[in-house]
Amino acid sequence: MGHENITEFILLGLFSDEDVKAACFVLFVLCYIAILLGNLLILLTIRDSRLREQPMYFFLSYLSFMDVCFTSTVAPKLITDLLAQQKTISYNGCMAQMFYAHFFGATEIFILVAMAYDRYAAICRPLHYMVIMSRQVCYVLVMASILGAFTHSIMQVLIIIELPFCGPNQIDHYFCDVFPLLKLACMDTSLLVIVIITTTGVLSILTFVALVISYIIILSTLRTYSSHGCRKALSTCGSHITVVFMFFLPLIFTYVPMADSVSNDKVFALFYTMIAPMFNPLIYTLRNTDMKNAMRKMWCRDARFEGK
């Protein structure tokens, strides 16, 4: 354990220009509010409607919850640091932020896999769907996602806490992540970089490829459906595929570095920490008739109550 010399880190953040910081402060505050409200709206709609009985919406409510948790590990600090003079984070705070960011992020990835499996079962095995995706199976998949994410995150933390930090303490990022921290260690970390790329990077690529293949199978099965059934299933799958691409591509670029480019990492990280979680609610609600109908019913019912 070699962090005795360092008790805190300095986050260099996204920008150094003061005017850009002020503009981004407003922008990110609005983004964060949109993420909270959008995902809260999805959670309430699913909870208050018949949709919660369907596995797809059961997973979607967990995905929305994880979106909020994931963004909340990074956004508040990113936003306050834009105005702060000293952007410090304690050693323990840094480890905690890294653990939670990886934990909630990885849980999201596994839930996206569960959602793809659910769509596969619904479209390719419709007669056995209720058996394949029973409520028990749904709970098992969510628990497995949480367990898998916990294992992944604890491994990242165990790697970092063993590193000696004795010199520079400036992290060239806006939150604590593995690669920027490895750069600060007082030892040769090239082997660890390879280990992390092979675990996180390869896992991201394999998951992404598996998801794309599963949706290709689903889309090829859809060709045999009637035009109405096909349109409905296409809009659902279309929204899932959009979310998968928005989340995974920046993630892969971050964890499979083509070159030694942390500055690009910050931009890519912005995609999966702020931009994708903000668009998820929009994608799932605007392209989804069931969600739109459920929301309409919920608002109309509330309006009726208020009218009385």
Automatic annotation (TrEMBL):
The protein's matches in CDD domains, at most eight in alphabetical order, are given as: 7tmA_OR4A-like
Point out the signal peptide segment.
Answer: none
The record gives the membrane topology as: Multi-pass membrane protein
Query: Is Magnesium tagged as a keyword?
Result: no
Ranges where the G-protein coupled receptors family 1 profile domain occurs: 38-284
Report the GO molecular function annotations.
Answer: G protein-coupled receptor activity; olfactory receptor activity
Alphabetically list the UniProt keywords: Cell membrane, G-protein coupled receptor, Membrane, Olfaction, Receptor, Sensory transduction, Transducer, Transmembrane, Transmembrane helix
Q: Which superkingdom is the protein from?
A: Eukaryota
Q: What does this protein do?
A: Putative odorant or sperm cell receptor.
**Similarity annotation:** Belongs to the G-protein coupled receptor 1 family.
Q: What name has this protein been given in UniProt?
A: Olfactory receptor
| Organism field | Vulpes vulpes (Red fox)
Q: What is the lineage of its organism?
A: Eukaryota, Metazoa, Chordata, Craniata, Vertebrata
